[in-house]
Design a protein that fits this description.
Layout: E1 2-7, E2 18-21, H1 32-35, E3 39-40, H2 48-55, H3 62-74, H4 78-88, E4 93-98, H5 107-118
Parallel strand pairs: 1-4, 2-3, 2-4
Helix pairs in contact: 3-5
InterPro entries: YeaO-like (IPR052552)
Pfam family, one: DUF488-N3i
Length: 119
């Protein structure tokens, strides 16, 4: 299976395969039609408290944020992560869709790492 990441503000393409929105909140200004989302996995997204903490942090805090998110995925979000993994196994190409502006520092990277370990 191919696992990819793409911003919600980028154009959906057939090559994206099964598109999974991995944010807890729907991306602002993106219609459901334009987003082309097949599944909204909001329970695998960072908790509201962690999301808010990241928005007030600097890029220097990326490692701390990523570690806290990994802990959430291993604990309170573990059932949702297992459900998502089972669903993704049914598809050849999966694109994790996220709204964050920074392609190098966002939760979809951490989620992708967790999924790769489980797949």
């Amino acid at each position: 299976m191919q696992l990819r990441r793409k911003r919600a503000y980028d154009t959906a393409a057939s090559a994206d395969g099964f598109r999974v929105l991995v944010d807890r909140l729907w991306p602002r200004g993106v219609s459901k039609e334009r987003a082309g989302i097949d599944l909204w996995a909001k329970n695998t997204a960072p908790s509201p408290d962690l999301r808010k903490a990241w928005h007030t942090a600097s890029d220097d805090d990326w490692g701390i944020y990523a570690d806290r998110y990994r802990a959430e995925l291993a604990n309170e979000s573990a059932p949702a992560l297992e459900d998502l993994t089972a669903t993704l196994k049914q598809h050849d190409v999966v694109t994790l869709v996220y709204a964050a502006h920074d392609p190098e520092h966002n939760h979809a990277i951490v989620l992708e790492e967790a999924l790769r370990r489980l797949l």
